[in-house]
């Protein structure tokens, strides 16, 4: 992938969804470090985590980042400049009125929350105005969801598997379709920052 | 921009189901409904939601098959053990003061929560004076709940949950094992009435002291959540208790002011 593609005019992006599994804590720290408090888009993350234990993700990233950080709740309205994490044990979905909803439907790729569930419902809501980012991870969750984002006209971004702590997840996406960009975290970070202008 | 075809098809299917079978999914949260409908379309080998709609309208058996996808039962005994622990510690002492108890488990699915509650009440000496109403909209789930047969595979999780919930005996006291399944002790359902009831279309049927409705409201939109909580409010007697799923809240609903939290993290509320 070639850097000049980054500057092609996108449809105005209104939301970013991010899927990550093994190696996620480090990857997200690099990706989101220094994002300004007035970042103009919501950032919605599914990080695979064990069910049945309270998640510390929102607390950890709230300390690290300038962004507002919340664990997403059922029927919560989605706000710009806020980083949301899916709660453990629940799928996180986006309703077309741009509120979250939760479900305890069966696991997808052994995961609940599943990246596919978030990505697919977000793509149905924002269409071309969505960017999806798939990072390091040890399973195939997120690949179909990211393809769905691209099919709806949204921007599909994948972490360079050569850099990913575990490359199964990025490689699964690449095996399924050709995303718009395959970049290391630093490049993905620049791109996400550019989307807000 | 015109609405995507799938969205239109989804609305039409839901309307068709309502008109033909009186099952009302119109105020369900649509993101989950869509995933479930798409799964049903695949499983029943239809090419589109519209094709499925035609079959649903003309074939009651197909509707019953689709209903299994629209009301996917996902449950386990003593799910969220801390909920049951909080019930034992904070609700049971107050329930003891009633000479008789009506308990409503709304959206009981295949019955895991019903048996969990019956075990808890039995261990606290309350089962003999309790009546449990276990309701759901899916007749097949209700039948499974009535039978009380569960896969042996799930018993390990149930046992772990039971122990973490503050269980006083051994979980194996409550079932008999046979091949790949366990049968729950029928004593546990002697005080249970299983019944078809819809939070979307039916009204209150009894005065209750405690209602447990877990991970049902997340599938509803705001309006239907308000309707359901309204029913609970109407059904609960003076200072009755309401237990919800661990990610459900009353905060932004119409009835927020009508309840007070008594175990905030475990989502147990009391009527003001």
UniProtKB/TrEMBL annotation, chain A:
<dbReference type="GO" id="GO:0006935">
    <property type="term" value="P:chemotaxis"/>
</dbReference>
<feature type="active site">
    <location>
        <position position="21"/>
    </location>
</feature>
<keyword id="KW-0378">Hydrolase</keyword>
<keyword id="KW-0145">Chemotaxis</keyword>
<dbReference type="GO" id="GO:0000156">
    <property type="term" value="F:phosphorelay response regulator activity"/>
</dbReference>
<dbReference type="GO" id="GO:0005737">
    <property type="term" value="C:cytoplasm"/>
</dbReference>
<dbReference type="InterPro" id="IPR035909">
    <property type="entry name" value="CheB_C"/>
</dbReference>
<feature type="active site">
    <location>
        <position position="141"/>
    </location>
</feature>
<feature type="active site">
    <location>
        <position position="48"/>
    </location>
</feature>
<feature type="domain" description="CheB-type methylesterase">
    <location>
        <begin position="9"/>
        <end position="194"/>
    </location>
</feature>
<protein>
    <recommendedName>
        <fullName>protein-glutamate methylesterase</fullName>
        <ecNumber>3.1.1.61</ecNumber>
    </recommendedName>
</protein>
<dbReference type="Pfam" id="PF01339">
    <property type="entry name" value="CheB_methylest"/>
</dbReference>
<dbReference type="InterPro" id="IPR000673">
    <property type="entry name" value="Sig_transdc_resp-reg_Me-estase"/>
</dbReference>
<dbReference type="GO" id="GO:0008984">
    <property type="term" value="F:protein-glutamate methylesterase activity"/>
</dbReference>
TrEMBL record, chain B:
<dbReference type="GO" id="GO:0008757">
    <property type="term" value="F:S-adenosylmethionine-dependent methyltransferase activity"/>
</dbReference>
<dbReference type="Pfam" id="PF03705">
    <property type="entry name" value="CheR_N"/>
</dbReference>
<dbReference type="InterPro" id="IPR000780">
    <property type="entry name" value="CheR_MeTrfase"/>
</dbReference>
<feature type="domain" description="CheR-type methyltransferase">
    <location>
        <begin position="1"/>
        <end position="272"/>
    </location>
</feature>
<dbReference type="InterPro" id="IPR050903">
    <property type="entry name" value="Bact_Chemotaxis_MeTrfase"/>
</dbReference>
<dbReference type="InterPro" id="IPR029063">
    <property type="entry name" value="SAM-dependent_MTases_sf"/>
</dbReference>
<dbReference type="InterPro" id="IPR022641">
    <property type="entry name" value="CheR_N"/>
</dbReference>
<dbReference type="InterPro" id="IPR022642">
    <property type="entry name" value="CheR_C"/>
</dbReference>
<dbReference type="Pfam" id="PF01739">
    <property type="entry name" value="CheR"/>
</dbReference>
<protein>
    <submittedName>
        <fullName>Chemotaxis protein CheR</fullName>
    </submittedName>
</protein>
